[in-house]
């Protein structure tokens, strides 16, 4: 039998505000000592009252607008009741029937084809505290609670069940993550829990309009984890149905080390969260002028910038797509081009050279050291100067790679490295000619092979000349002089 996969995603995005959602505690809890970013509101103490963080509301509206959502005129916060130990109050302040944004669309691309995924709602809530579990030998297991994270502003983006493959789900997440980065509303680090995802997945017979029984998958902390977990779960559900079994509605956890999902708790019946309007917070009236002001402040997003990079800089679509995947990388590229474009005649060729450095050698060095573009010592001014040294003939591409590696470690300007290391390209014909004479004298067999019709022998001799000159001879000059010397030998 042929099955169709149905996937919906719930993405929780921790907002990058200075203070928490409903109090004045700093939101920089990540590296703070446990329980050092707390107050009576965070701790749910009697008599404490929440106050809405305006910036968090603004960030949520901004996200909704970027996703093409409708921003309702009215919104409100609700109490969502459940007695988990990571919620000291015994309830979470969230949003139920009147979210801040709804009915949007996110365009994704998979295998060169575009399609739309519905965004049902974008709402705002507070994050829970962090539970830490310990085996506690020999006295038995125990848990500790760090309240620092409690009350941090958490935005939830809920998709429609419109995705039909793990590939589409991954593309949705990558695109949404890019939008969060461009908007600047979240750090978006999945490993730190700033951007986390729960997936709802089911399968149904091809052509059926009825949804199958869905399972929810948690504990996924990377795009790769989401992709692998969904593939595993789809295969698991297919095997159950093909064996005549029945899918159980449940929450399952992804175990990265084993590559499997495991049952965590049953969800045969919807949990009664007993939502009701939060009595300590007033309803929100979202003024149209405020929404228009937020809309006018939206930055250029990845898709728009990608098209501009192709049009303005003449970049291939492949390069533009990679460069604009990250706002920081895109800005690094534009800064590098801007600093060097005054000295170049061909903007498209210069831009392509800068793109090659960023996507090639610089990315390789960054990956080796696990650094982001914002952490590297090679800044746009370094890259612009490096390309200028190549264009002026001071450096060959091979020598420039050496200079880049040195600058990556030391942070020094390429011009200073060239001067200190004596790395200037040799353009003097007499010096190169001397090296050519030496290479031919040291390799009589290669000369004989060339005379005998083996044209590739010339490439070997070019390499020998470059070796003699420690890679500093101008490559095209070397080729020219080697070819001339060999033809003289052949004609002689």
How would you portray this structure in words?
42% of the residues lie in helices and 20% in strands. With 492 residues, it is an alpha+beta fold. The strands form 4 sheets. Strands 5-6-9-1-10-11-12-13 form an 8-stranded mixed beta sheet. A 3-stranded antiparallel beta sheet has the order 4-3-14, with no helix packed on it. The chain is elongated and about 100 Å long.
Strand content: 15-25%
**DSSP strand tally:** 15
What's the average pLDDT? 90
**Which residues sit in consecutive blocks of at least 5 with pLDDT less than 50?**
none
Structural class: alpha+beta
Rg from Cα:
30 Å
Share of helical residues = 40-55%
Spatial strand order of the main sheet: 5-6-9-1-10-11-12-13
Outline of this structure?
The chain has 492 residues and is α+β, with helices and mostly antiparallel strands.
Could you list some keywords that capture this structure?
about 500 residues, alpha+beta, eight-stranded mixed beta sheet, three-stranded antiparallel beta sheet, 15 strands, about 20% strand
List the helices and strands and how they pair.
Layout: E1 3-14, H1 40-43, H2 54-66, E2 74-75, E3 78-81, E4 91-94, E5 101-110, E6 113-126, E7 130-134, E8 142-146, E9 153-159, H3 166-183, E10 195-205, E11 215-220, H4 223-242, E12 250-255, E13 260-266, E14 276-277, E15 284-285, H5 288-296, H6 302-313, H7 317-323, H8 327-340, H9 347-369, H10 380-391, H11 397-410, H12 414-421, H13 429-442, H14 444-451, H15 457-468, H16 475-491
Helix pairs in contact: 3-4, 6-7, 8-9, 8-10, 10-11, 13-15, 13-16, 14-15, 15-16
């Amino acid at each position: 039998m042929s099955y169709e996969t149905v996937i919906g995603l719930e993405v929780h995005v921790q907002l990058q505000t200075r203070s928490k959602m409903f109090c004045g505690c700093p939101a920089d809890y990540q590296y703070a000592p446990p329980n050092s970013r707390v107050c009576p509101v965070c701790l749910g103490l009697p008599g404490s009252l929440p106050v809405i963080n305006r910036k968090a509301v603004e960030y949520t509206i901004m996200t909704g607008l970027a996703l093409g959502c409708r921003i309702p005129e009215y919104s409100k916060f609700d109490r969502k009741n459940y007695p988990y130990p990571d919620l000291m109050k015994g309830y979470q302040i969230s949003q139920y029937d009147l979210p801040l944004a709804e009915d949007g669309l996110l365009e994704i691309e998979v295998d060169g084809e575009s399609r739309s995924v519905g965004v049902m709602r974008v709402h705002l809530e507070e994050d829970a505290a962090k539970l830490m579990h310990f085996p506690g030998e020999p006295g038995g297991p125990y848990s500790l609670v760090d309240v620092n994270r409690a009350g941090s502003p958490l935005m939830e983006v809920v998709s429609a069940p419109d995705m039909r493959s793990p590939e589409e789900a991954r593309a949705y997440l990558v695109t949404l993550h890019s939008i969060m980065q461009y908007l600047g509303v979240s750090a978006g680090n999945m490993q730190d829990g700033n951007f986390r995802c729960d997936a709802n997945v089911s399968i149904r017979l091809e052509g059926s309009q009825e949804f199958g029984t869905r399972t929810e998958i948690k504990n996924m902390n990377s795009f790769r984890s989401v992709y692998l977990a969904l593939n595993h779960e789809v295969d698991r559900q297919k095997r159950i149905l093909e064996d005549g079994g029945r899918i159980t509605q449940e929450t399952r956890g992804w175990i990265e080390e084993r590559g499997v999902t495991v049952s965590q708790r049953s969800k045969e019946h919807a949990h009664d969260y007993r939502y009701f309007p939060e009595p300590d917070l007033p309803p929100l009236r979202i003024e149209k002028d405020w929404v228009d002001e937020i809309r006018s402040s939206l930055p250029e997003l990845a898709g728009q910038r990608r098209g501009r990079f192709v049009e303005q800089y003449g970049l291939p679509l492949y390069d533009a797509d990679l460069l604009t995947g990250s706002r920081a990388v895109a800005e690094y590229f534009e800064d590098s081009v801007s600093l060097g474009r005054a000295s170049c005649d061909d903007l498209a060729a210069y831009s392509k050279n800068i793109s090659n450095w960023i996507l090639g050698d610089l990315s390789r060095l960054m990956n080796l050291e696990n650094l982001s573009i914002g952490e590297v010592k090679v800044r746009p001014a370094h890259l612009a100067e490096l390309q200028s040294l190549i264009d002026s003939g001071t450096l060959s591409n091979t020598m420039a790679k050496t200079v880049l590696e040195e600058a990556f470690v030391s942070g020094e300007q390429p011009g200073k490295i060239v001067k200190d290391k004596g790395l200037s390209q040799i353009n003097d014909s007499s010096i190169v000619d001397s090296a050519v004479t030496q290479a031919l004298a040291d390799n009589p067999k290669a000369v004989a092979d060339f005379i005998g019709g083996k044209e590739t022998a010339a490439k070997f001799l070019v390499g020998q000349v470059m070796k003699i000159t420690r890679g500093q001879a101008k490559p095209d000059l070397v080729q020219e002089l080697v070819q001339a010397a060999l033809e003289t030998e052949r004609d002689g």
